[in-house]
Amino acid sequence: MTSTVNIKSFWAKVLAATFIFPVAYLLVLSLAESWLFPELFPVSFTAERWSTLFSTNSELFNSLLLSLVVAVMVAFISTLSGFYTSKQLAYHRKRKLWMRLSYFPFVLSPVIYAAVLYYYFIELNLAGNIGGVILGHILIAYPYSVILFSGFWGNRTQRIEQLVQTLGGNRWQTYKHVFLPLAQGLLLICFFQTFLISWFEYGLTTIIGVGKVQTLTLKVFQYINEANFYNAALASSLLILPPIILLYFNKKYLFQKRW
Amino acid sequence: MKISELTLFNNKAETAGIGLFLLLAVLPLVLGVLYALLYSLGLIGLISDGFTFSHWQRALSDQEFWLSILYTFYIALTTIAISITSALAASLYINKPLQKGIAGFSAYIPLAFPAIVVAFLAFQLGSQSGFFARLFFQFGIITDTAAFPEMVNDPFGIGIIAAHTFMAMPFFTLYFMSLYDQENISELSQVAQTLGASRTAQLRRIIVPIILKRAFPTLTLYTIFVMGSYEIPLILGRQTPQMMSVLVIRKLRRFSLSTIPEAYITALVFIAIILTILYLLFKSRTFSYDLDR
């Protein structure tokens, strides 16, 4: 019995090490001064890359800020519009049709979606600028938000709404005092999930942004192409930092079906 | 007496909500498909010569196109099969240690990784001068980089499958563990045990079928997600065969304009495959529209 417990504990530790190792590897690579074959560990370390990150005119720092701005905007717009829209869709008699339609853009490959939409982005002067990239990300994040909130608008919520109306509450008061407090947890989950959809996005950003909107994911790819693996590791570390912070606060912010 | 007509929208709020939905979720997809379709038929675009099926004929007779479809399915299905098997093993065998302490926390870490970072890591670890090759070299198993087996940019997509599995396996492990609790599987197993079922019979006839049936929609959606992935096959794949998403972008970005209609045809076929899978999924009884369920 004890040996079975020990074996299980051993395998759990092996799995944990497999999952933690990549984080450690990225941090070590970002701090390595030189790490060439066949060295198993870097010969020397440097903090220069990390320190120059926060200096003025650091390209990577600008990308970090840009990614943050884009992801926050996408999360904010998608969450609020998705919350509002999902109510109208959930109580509509064609609910099933709307829900089916919302799955299509959400599961479609973002890069292929961007490829077939690129022409319209050019026509609307939205290709190669931050506005276009934000809109492109919203086209994926918004349907996700609609789907996520659809479960919230059930019979119970409808009965509460009817009660508020019977007691004389108007639409604004219903949202302010009932719906938003009730959906607070789900709104936070949706905000962070749509933030991550935008934060992780590469394919659509590179097509719609024409490579000009240099978010962090584009920087990682650029550094890989240049064979500058140390900077790629630094940019990758910056990319995984916000999700790991979210994980520290609440696992549910990270563990949600996004597919 | 006023008889109200059955209209699509009942009030202004509904009109605004559904209007916004149509504008952001439905119209772009319709317009995108329409543009790709017209381009593929030679009706629009820089090389347009009027209505023609020649681009479709050329695309459909191209071996690379069919190879790409097969390769996309191969990568997605292999990834899902490996991920399901390993996640089932982890969630059923080591579920207790995985629910507490550092092991419990670590299972969430891969969810914090964007695809491009996973691709970079797979390249760093699995290439012929990568970390694993260095380990083999230090232990004297290989004497030079060429002796290490190709695990990235290889013909079998080992790197691509490994990278996707790294992302999918922990997600499914956590998902299966939550399903195990939600579906009261442990109680059902106990009933089966009381009735004389062995542990193997419980696994084969109760536990695994319930989990897989309940997880079927998510597994299908994840398969679609892998089929459409771009960054991982772009960094870890080869020039040929390529996954459909990579092939579309490569054909769109070539200097020769003649490959653009073929790129749109590949995109249209991909969209058609996804729509068919989704249609079949929607017809399945286990499908729920709510992600929370």
TrEMBL record, chain A:
Taxonomic lineage: Bacteria, Pseudomonadati, Balneolota, Balneolia, Balneolales
Lineage: superkingdom: Bacteria
Alphabetic keyword roster: Cell inner membrane, Cell membrane, Membrane, Transmembrane, Transmembrane helix, Transport
Cellular localisation: Cell inner membrane; Cell membrane
GO cellular component terms attached to this protein's record: plasma membrane
Recorded topology in the membrane: Multi-pass membrane protein
InterPro entries reported for this sequence: MetI-like (IPR000515), MetI-like_sf (IPR035906)
Regions crossing the membrane: 12-32, 60-80, 101-122, 134-153, 178-200, 229-249
Protein name as annotated: ABC transporter permease subunit
TrEMBL record, chain B:
Gene Ontology biological-process annotations: transmembrane transport
Keywords: Cell inner membrane, Cell membrane, Membrane, Transmembrane, Transmembrane helix, Transport
UniProt domain ABC transmembrane type-1: residue ranges: 69-281
Matching PROSITE patterns: ABC_TM1 (PS50928)
SUPFAM superfamilies hit by this protein: MetI-like
Compartment annotation: Cell inner membrane; Cell membrane
Pfam families: BPD_transp_1 (PF00528)
Membrane topology of the entry: Multi-pass membrane protein
Database matches in InterPro entries: MetI-like, MetI-like_sf
Main location: membrane
Transmembrane residue ranges: 20-48, 68-93, 105-125, 156-177, 219-236, 257-282
GO annotation, cellular component aspect: plasma membrane
Family (UniProt): Belongs to the binding-protein-dependent transport system permease family.
PANTHER family recorded: INNER MEMBRANE ABC TRANSPORTER PERMEASE PROTEIN YDCV (PTHR43357)
Annotated protein name in UniProt: Sugar ABC transporter permease
